[in-house]
Amino acid sequence: MRLVDFNGVVYAQGMSRASLAFVVVCLAACGSTQSGGAGGGGDQGDGGTSDGDSGAGGLLGGDGGSNEGGPTGNGCSESAKLIYVVSNDALALYSFYPPTLTFSKIGQLVCGAQTGPFSMSVARDGTAWILYQDGKLYRASTKDASCTATAFVPGQNGFQTFGMGFSADAAGSTQETLYACWTKGLAKIDTDTLTLTPIGSIPGISLTGGCDLTGTGDGLLYTFIPQTTSWLIATLDKTSSAPTFQKSLTPPIPAGGSWGTSYWGGSLYLYTQTPTAPGSTVWKWNPADGTTTKLIENIGFSIVGAGESTCAPTSPVK
User: Fold this and answer.
1) Domain carrying residue 176
2) Which residue has the higher pLDDT, 13 or 158?
3) Nearest to 297 by CA among 101, 74, 22, 81
4) What region does 107 belong to: left with phi over 0, alpha with psi -120 to 50, or beta?
5) 214 domain residue, yes or no
6) Between the N and C ends of the chain, which has fewer C-beta atoms within 10 Å?
7) Are strands 258-264 and 176-182 parallel, antiparallel or unpaired?
């Protein structure tokens, strides 16, 4: 791992993991043509990919479960509190548990699509919503990765592909809305009628490279946007689409390639991969102090979408 001292950036020593020899061809990767989903933060720990339930594991184990439990008092199962990511090269769904930095393979995605995944988000009931590169939208189980096609019509109002994120309608609410974002701006999707309705452009921010979204259980909506030589994080007004906060992350996270984002435990978890890298790198951005930490360099597969539900914790977990 290359250690470079940037202002406000902390590189976690010893977090680099050797990758498998995947050949990642970023023909439709987020950041150039692809987007990711949602996620969050947690304490640094030994990372990797395991089989079975989330926990400290070895690099790239076999198929695993999502540690799915029954609903709690707020209607959330334990599995709905995890982050989930989708891989374009492995065509698989994984869970991610931030406190141990462990990825657990849920299973292979067999959605019947002729293209690969583009982005994803996770609903409060623990269902993953996965958009493919052809604009088709699928629902996938976070228990076994089984996949079902929806009747969503691609290309509505010019939104062929886009990043997605569920956000609670109000802080602590069990009601949520699915939002979409790409070069045309911000939109919302009715998950019953599968109708996409534009909200507006994002004033003052270039969306030439697209935009990803992740929402929170306290009603926030974050976007992670590639710029020419940097990355931009912003929160959006869900009614007007105007940014209410924005910060440029430069120069620590390399520009270009695939990307995704999620929110967990009061922090954003960012996933980036340059076109020449064999696997994605995991970062943590802490809104409290504005620092960016590299958690795992090269996880061994390519993340093109990430997401967490509004059940995920919104404050630091001790």
Assistant:
1) 9-308
2) 158
3) 101
4) left
5) yes
6) C
7) unpaired
CATH number of the CATH domain containing 114: 2.120.10
Number of domains present in the structure of the chain: 1
CA 63, chain centre distance (Å): 20
Q: Which amino acid is at 211?
A: C
203 C-beta neighbours (distance < 10 Å), count: 10
What pLDDT digit, counting tens, does each position of 166-207 carry?
Answer: 999 999 999 999 999 999 999 999 999 999 999 999 999 999
| Whole-structure pTM value | 0.81
* Cα dihedral 99, 101, 105, 106 in deg (nearest 10): 30
Q: Note whether residue 253 is domain-resident.
A: yes
In 3D space, the residue among 122, 150, 119 whose CA is nearest the CA of residue 132 turns out to be 119
The answer to whether residue 126 sits within a structural domain is yes
